[in-house]
Amino acid sequence: MRYFSGNLNEKHELILDEQELRHCLKVLRQKEGDKITVINGKGELWTAAITGQTRQNGRLEILDYKFEQDKTKSTLHLAIAPTKNADRIEWLLEKATELGLKKLSILYTNRTERKRIKINRLNMIAMSAIKQSRQVELPCIEEIEFDKLIGQANTGLKYIATCEWEYDKDDLQALDFKQSAMILVGPEGDFTSEELSKAIQSGYRPLSLGENRLRTETAGLLLAANYYMKNTLS
Amino acid sequence: MRYFSGNLNEKHELILDEQELRHCLKVLRQKEGDKITVINGKGELWTAAITGQTRQNGRLEILDYKFEQDKTKSTLHLAIAPTKNADRIEWLLEKATELGLKKLSILYTNRTERKRIKINRLNMIAMSAIKQSRQVELPCIEEIEFDKLIGQANTGLKYIATCEWEYDKDDLQALDFKQSAMILVGPEGDFTSEELSKAIQSGYRPLSLGENRLRTETAGLLLAANYYMKNTLS
User: Fold this and answer.
1) What is d(CA B63, CA B35) in angstroms, rounded to the nearest whole number?
2) How many angstroms separate the CA atoms of B65 and A74, rounded?
3) N or C terminus: fewer CB in 10 A for chain B?
4) What is the mean predicted confidence (pLDDT) over B67-91?
């Protein structure tokens, strides 16, 4: 099990916050002298020891440090409309994070019914998923309006997944994740035709994900899973 | 929206059961004269009309019939240990079904904590997923003990996914879904080394899914998503 801490004090000790400390001492019953692994979600990784002080103030003694460079050659940025039922988008985030997603934009579109999402809760889920899957980097999570997002300059491939586009094998084949890619996925009811036009004008390629009509979160998962496999095999 | 019915009466009318009827008339507010699509989960597909009798006894008038041949060239059979939290396996089933899974075996292994699962509930989830994703064939769902499953003769490729096997790109690359494949996925805590040996003796190839430590249901999803993409692109 890995623990999260972003804090080093002036004595060069790592500090676990209350929640991580409880998890460490109460749930996983770590004892004085045990060695644990601590990450900060930005690639830094410490081996640290629980000392006599840990129970009082969360301080850990650092035994070893390394910086793990992220090995993926390309990145996936999903911009996805939040589902009516928040569970579905949370589940997607957990799975996509396990599979190495680097950025999630919660995308507010014309037909998006849900107009708010708990970003703090999403960050907690992502944190738990990187600890569980033994990664070192937290994905970046943001909320953004459709018009604002497509107005931004983005390097790499840009796609908009939609059921309104006729399936073309070559389009889907071209999405080989050898380059970093940003992919928009719409809400229940899809993007409006106006949004689709705007995206195309902004350089996004329309993409059909095949003949099965996939739910929003399933489309996101399909992309994340294929991204992971391509990166693992590259 | 599609409806499910396995029943044709002697007058060659389709009969919706109580639950489907309620969904049709109360939730989706279909009216007399509306045309609806009915599937039986085995490739048969009817266009049928709601008549004056439908509200009383669920009878529909058949207007058109076709048999949709499943277009996938190979099939995926996942045999997966049930997760401690049943939600996770239900979610996996829903997503994998949307992505065209053909068979799910709920696999009871040595380290499986959950010893029962509600198969009826899984069948309902699968039904809803094929309706939603516009497919025609229900996946087959069963419960089975590990020893019994690996004792069965199976054609096609056979894999056992495990964290205990060193990752080898060539192994994973070989899993191209051009042939039908059956893949075993273990519980939290993985297969025992005895189970792994038995599977290898029975002709299963061990397979590591890369460096991220994936949860049981995430491993299943990764496989289903890659199966769908390969089938869609083939």
Assistant:
1) 9
2) 48
3) N
4) 92
Rounded to 5°, the CA angle A119-A120-A125 comes to 95
Chain A closest CA to B202's CA: distance in Å?
27
State which amino acid sits at residue A41: G
B60: enclosing H helix or E strand: strand B59-67
**Residue to substitute from A73, A101, A221, interface B, most B β-carbons within 10 A:** A221
Q: In A, which residues are within 8 Å of B91 by CB distance?
A: 91
Contacts of B169 in chain A (CB under 8 A): 232-233
Whole-model pTM: value is 0.92
State the pLDDT at residue A45.
93
Tell me the residue length of chain A: 234
Q: CA distances (Å), B44 to each of A38, B41, B50, B133, B193, in order?
A: 55, 7, 19, 16, 44
Token pair in block for residue B40? 């039986």
Q: What is the DSSP string of A126-168?
A: HHHHHHHHT--BPPEEEEEEHHHHHHS---SEEEEE-TTS---
Q: Is B20 on the interface with A (CB under 8 A)?
A: no
Q: How many CB atoms lie within 10 A of CB B20?
A: 18
Best of A39, A232, A233 to disrupt the B interface (most B CBs within 10 Å) is A232
Amino acid (one-letter) located at A190: D
Nearest to B16 by CA among B4, B30, B26: B4
* pLDDT of B12 strictly over 90: no
User: Would you call B139 an interface residue with chain A, using a CB distance cutoff of 8 Å?
Assistant: no
**Helix, strand or coil, per DSSP, at residue B191:** coil
Q: Which amino acid is at B103?
A: K
B29: its two tokens: 């507010």
Average pLDDT over residues B59-73: 89
| Whether ipTM exceeds 0.85 | yes
Contact A98 B228 (CB under 8 A): no
Which residues from chain A sit within 8 angstroms of residue B228, using beta carbons?
210, 212, 222
The residue of B1, B207, B228 whose CB has the most chain A CBs within 10 angstroms, and thus the best one to mutate to test that interface, is B228
In this complex, is the C-beta atom of B92 within 8 Å of any C-beta atom belonging to chain A? no
Nearest to B93 by CA among B130, B137, B145: B130
pLDDT tens for residues B190-230? 999 999 999 999 999 999 999 999 999 999 999 999 999 99
d(CA B233, CA B72): 11
Ranges of residues in chain A whose predicted pLDDT is under 70: none
